[in-house]
Design a protein that fits this description.
four-stranded antiparallel β-sheet, about 25% helix
């Protein structure tokens, strides 16, 4: 098994890089190393941050020697990786009506597909949550159908609504806060992937699987009210 490339990120962080592509097998190795370090953390380990292809490891250099940490990382990374135990399958309601999908027409035009086909392709796929980043609860996903692999915009569009379903650069994402973006808004879910008032502000974990269930605007409005009151409106079940 190929060893990860180790990169120093300043004097208090080490990055273990496993590859250069969006690949479930690479991500499994990232999560396996993350799990191993979390289950038996060396003294001085501060935080681990998984991404698509790498794990950033923050540590206290006055407590944990860099070379000792590197040796431990390489030894743990040599162990066989498997999908993270306890991963959850989530089904998020999603409205693809143009009222909630401001850019779906632009994506249809760019891909040569109908608006209905764009929605069907997006809703028919299964997505892995690869990482959080950019903003609280902003989930980066892999698994977007190749037919929807449009490039990101050359310039950002005005702020998208909260909880928008985004695509761009061959990837998918779920946004949480309104903000300008180069991605395309092709839907909106009433579910909150970041809800600070809940006991668990981030209900969806890295490594979980997402599906999207199309709903009409009336159902969206009803679920939006329920989600705003704190209810989790997505369906969840433990993966087999």
């Amino acid at each position: 098994m190929e060893s990860p490339r180790l990169l120093d990120a300043g004097e208090a962080a080490l990055v273990a890089e496993f590859g250069a592509t969006v690949d479930p097998a690479i991500h499994d190795r990232v999560l396996a190393l993350d799990d191993a370090l979390r289950s038996a953390p060396p003294e001085g380990l501060r935080e681990t941050v998984p991404t698509y292809r790498s794990l950033m490891i923050h540590y206290d250099p006055l407590v944990l020697d860099r070379d000792d940490l590197a040796a431990r990382v390489l030894a743990l990374a040599a162990q066989p990786a498997s999908a993270r135990a306890g991963a959850t399958l989530w089904t998020l309601p999603c409205c693809y009506d143009p009222a909630c999908a401001e850019d779906i027409g632009a994506v249809a035009q760019a891909t040569g597909l109908s608006v209905e086909r764009v929605a069907a392709l997006h809703a028919g796929a299964e997505y892995r949550v690869y990482m959080y980043g950019f903003a609280p609860g902003f989930a980066y996903l892999g698994g977007l159908p190749t037919e929807l692999a449009v490039s990101r915009r050359a310039t950002p569009r005005p702020p998208h609504p909260a909880n928008a379903l985004l695509i761009g650069g061959g990837l998918a994402a779920v946004g949480t806060f309104p903000m300008p973006t180069g991605w395309y808004v092709i839907g909106r879910t009433p579910e909150r992937l970041y809800a600070p008032h809940r006991p668990d502000p981030f209900p969806v974990a890295v490594g979980d699987t997402l599906r999207f269930e199309p709903i009409d605007p009336a159902t969206f409005a009803d679920l939006e009210r329920r989600a705003a009151s704190g209810e989790i409106v997505a369906q969840r079940r433990e993966a087999a």
